[in-house]
Prior knowledge:
By secondary structure, the protein is an alpha/beta fold. The chain has helices at 2-8, 10-21, 46-59, 80-85, 118-127, 130-138, 178-186, 199-205, 216-222, 249-253, 257-292, 302-320, 324-346, 348-354, and strands spanning 30-36, 64-69, 91-94, 143-150, 157-159, 173-175, 190-192, 210-211, 230-233, 242-248, 296-299. 48% of the residues lie in helices and 14% in strands. Strand 1 (30-36), helix 3 and strand 2 (64-69) form a beta-alpha-beta unit. Helix 7 (178-186) crosses helix 12.
Amino acid sequence: MQRREFLGTGAAVAAAGLGLAGRASADEPLHWKMVTTWPKNFPGLGTGAEFLAQAIGEMSGGRLQVQVYGAGELVPAFEVFDAVSQGAAQMGHGAAYYWKGKNPAFQFFSTMPFGMTANEMNGWLYKGGGMELWEEAYAPFDVVPLAAGNTMVQMGGWFKREIRGLEDLQGLRMRIPGLGGEVLRRVGGTPVNLSGKELLVSLQTGAIDATEWVGPWNDLAFGLHRAAKYYYYPGWHEPGTTLEGLVHRPAFEALPKDLQAIVQNAARATNQDMMADFTAHNNDALKALVEKYEVELRQFPPEVLSALREHAEAVIAEVAETGEFTRRVYDSYQSFYARVRDWTAISEQAYLDTR
């Protein structure tokens, strides 16, 4: 009842925000709400949203102050986009593949199975035309998208049983979002979409047989090792997942130009800071999982990865044919990917193979 009332007053909230935006000052600051798909202050993701809010406040000298709400505090995790679209909250923080039901093209702005890494995604978004397409995709919903974080290469997930071959994926019920879930379906599994706070209990009760979340730092915080023994890599389904800041367009456009620039550049700072955070913390968390909690670290068998890659290419190509705009996004993504991967191969990949 409280959530429906909150969403129902979206227009009033937006109107109030617009009225304040034009006169935001140190004496009379503008107050915004940010709803997120993550638990409050959850490592990396939730703290990334907090970093974004704090950066906006500090960079604006307190003229624009943002209060962050975790998943379920004001709206459920998967209703964040709607809350921002309707103006019930001026900002949100999540991932574009959660809203694929609104437009399948959204998924390209988060991650693609066997697709671009975090650095490559940043290149496409900021310098390859990706942001312009993303803005066009969200425009009908009165939402301004901002790249505001990246998890980098994720882990392949937690499994209650070993994955020795494709037969072990048959009938497997796994929490896995986005196009990775559809790829799993093609090899005989059953994808399930759950919010982060549901994962541990779902594994413990047998509602699912496996789950992926992000990586060691986040997975340790959720305690997923308490419910599954086998931890697989690499994260073929999410090689560089861009997280997003969402801004209600009327509220954003009502801001003075300097505050608009502050919101945009605070998101860029968040994008960089989150990558540093995951780089700094993932290995220590992985060491704890393996040495302290005796988790079995496994690499997916080559035949499994090969089959997943084959199906991923087919799934992505099918998504591209769902509409003219989706095709444009697909062509832009694939064109940039084809160019940048050649450089990655003789720079970062070659160096990592030899160091």
